[in-house]
Amino acid sequence: MTLTASQARERLIGAWNLLSFHTTPTTSSGPTTHQPMGAAPLGRLLTTADGWISTFGNDPSNMIDPSTPWITASDAELSLVARCIMSYIRRYQIFVKEEEVRLSTHVHVSVDPSWVETQQERTVELKVEKGRELVVLRPVEDIPAPDGGKGSAVLIWEKIQIDER
User: Fold this and answer.
1) What percent of the chain has a predicted confidence (pLDDT) above 90?
2) Alpha helices in 64-150 (DSSP H)
3) What is the pTM (predicted TM-score) of this model?
4) For residue 142, what are the domain limits?
5) Given a cut of 90, is residue 20 above it in pLDDT?
6) CA angle 156, 116, 153 (to 5 degrees)
7) In angstroms, rounded to a whole number, what is the distance separating the alpha carbons of residues 152 and 104?
8) What is the CATH number of the domain that holds 49?
9) Domain tally, the chain
10) What is the pLDDT of residue 123?
11) How far apart are the C-alpha atoms of 114 and 88, rounded to whole Å?
12) pLDDT tens profile 102-122
């Protein structure tokens, strides 16, 4: 049964923890699966009732020494960290297209300047597994791959319950 847009929107509102992020090449001969934020990504997705969405994610294995302020870190250290960061703020809309729930966003602020002022669309799969509320987001269009090709992406988020905040 496909959810209505308002049902999906209501379930999506809240705070989510990133469980996994992987890409699969579609136009290149890179590795079969790539994990842009490592095997155990660190990330949060916040969705508000008034139509805002904010995301931050990174690879915690690529962190610099926590005692080193970014302003004094070397370019090499910052490059290692920055390539793994996904962060943006944008307006969102939920709708149903071809029997799929979709999330459309207009990016206002992003750590990646190529995303600013772009429109992005993702399919949304909301489900419950073993008592955990999950959302699976898949960009409708392929995303850039590290080797310069393109790839499909899957991000899986778990809803943070009030007692976990």
Assistant:
1) 44
2) 75-82
3) 0.85
4) 5-164
5) yes
6) 25
7) 17
8) 2.40.128.280
9) 1
10) 94
11) 11
12) 999 998 888 888 888 989 999
